[in-house]
Fold this sequence. Notes:
cell cycle, mainly alpha, coiled coil, 13 helices, rod-shaped
Amino acid sequence: xxxxxxxxxxxxxxxxxxxxxxxxxxxxxxxxxxxxxxxxxxxxxxxxxxxxxxxxxxxxxxxxxxxxxxxxxxxxxxxxxxxxxxxxxxxxxxxxxxxxxxxxxxxxxxxxxxxxxxxxxxxxxxxxxxxxxxxxxxxxxxxxxxxxxxxxxxxxxxxxxxxxxxxxxxxxxxxxxxxxxxxxxxxxxxxxxxxxxxxxxxxxxxxxxxxxxxxxxxxxxxxxxxxxxxxxxxxxxxxxxxxxxxxxxxxxxxxxxxxxxxxxxxxxxxxxxxxxxxxxxxxxxxxxxxxxxxxxxxxxxxxxxxxxxxxxxxxxxxxxxxxxx
Length: 325
């Protein structure tokens, strides 16, 4: 009897412990410092659920995959032997071997290889660029606030279906790792695509030069300020000022092409002038020949008196030649 009572009490205690494990836990009250830091989380563009501590929050579409994966777990049918098995796969990413054991998950790298390569590349670009280095510091502060916004208490309040502390830690690490990796890789692409490192270096040089001129207390109409201050310059002209070096190269190319065309036109003009001179010489010779021909024709032409005398002479000759009978 005592053995059966002990067995029954042990089974009741095991059942009570299992129900306590499966029951959703109420979030612990947050310290005032954490609540003050969490107030900055909505500025980050993250879902308000990650920064809110209210238990009545309705899950958003961003946490739909987490909710679906958590609700699909057969928690009621888990046995003591299944407690050491791998956690169920979710719709975020395929879990690694380190995620099956919370102790091993603490040793996994916080970022993937692509994000770490992007971080190293950004650090190399900002090595001699103080403005870009300041931008990287601001980005690191932003990513630090991401850690604050994804603390276990906030995730537990936003997604109460994930009652297990192990699940919350695993999903929080995944979310932070993927979000930070995405932000870092996209940041490098934006910096390279829009040449922000070059712009930042130019801005730093311009500010240094402006500080020097301010220290010299130059007047706006002074000669030293003419290259930096012109009242008639518009914003469009300032925007197009970066194209001046490229336009100068193009202008030099066009000037060389124009010079070649001018030389070719000069040669063509000289050839045409020689052809015109040759034509005028031939035309003058033809005119002289025509004048000579006119004089010759005029010299051999017969007028009316000469024609009358010639006819009389021919008549006399015919009279003398004709035989007389």
